[in-house]
Amino acid sequence: MDTHKNAATRRNAVLCSLAELPDGGMRVVVDDLRKSDAAGMWQHHTFVTFKDYPPNILAEPEGLSEAELADFGFFVLVRLLAVNGRLPDADDAPDSDAHLTDEQRHRIAALTDEDIAWIDQQLLSHCDGQFRNVAYVVGTAMSLDPKRQPGIPDVFYAGRVRKLVERGVLEAVGDLSRMRYCEVRSVR
Asked: Which of 77, 144, 170, 171 has a Cα-to-Cα distance from 5 of 20 to 30 A?
């Protein structure tokens, strides 16, 4: 008996993918997907997170600790349950920098005007006339930035998106204080 055919597939899924980094390392990316109207097709919905591994670390996965492997499996399962509405919504609070570490605050304070202009340009490079989820724009800008400074968190990037909206460079719909619940597009 084919048990998969007897079970209805939920509308939301989690995709884990790999990207090769310029230094030979690997990036594990986690995205939310939604089932499309076309049979058997899925569409990207939201960038969730990523983790970079130095070169050769993933060449032999048995080198990863059991705790890291268990944490990854737990994260994917919880994410899958969350996107399918099987967990209580704990994401009612606005994006906040209240949870930043002292090191992150120090790194943000050390950014120059040129650094911030570069971050803004990276964010804008992932916006066009089509509305895109702010979490997706932030995640894509962070993951594809060739000059990304480590330790600068996503909430800082989301704050830069808000500044770009305030300046009239981007247009927003939704709750701009919560990057997962807002979309932006370029004003042209």
From this structure: 77
Amino acid identity at 1: M
Residue 61 per-residue DSSP state: G
Dihedral over alpha carbons 170, 183, 154, 144 (to 10 degrees): -80
Please report where in the chains the tokens 């932030």 appear, as a residue.
138
> Tokens representing 63?
């080198």
Q: What pLDDT sits at residue 4?
A: 54
* Alpha-carbon distances of 137 from 42, 75, 154, 167, 185, rounded to whole Å: 19, 22, 10, 18, 10
3-state helix, strand, coil in the chain (%, to 5): 40, 25, 40
Phi, psi of 103 (to 5 degrees): -65, -45
Q: What is the CA radius of gyration of the chain?
A: 18
pLDDT 10s digits, 39-73 = 778 887 776 667 778 888 888 878 788 877 877 78
Cβ atoms of 152 and 108 within 8 Å: the answer is yes
pLDDT tens-digit profile of 89-118?
A: 545 556 666 677 888 889 999 999 999 999
Question: In one letter, which amino acid is 146?
Answer: P
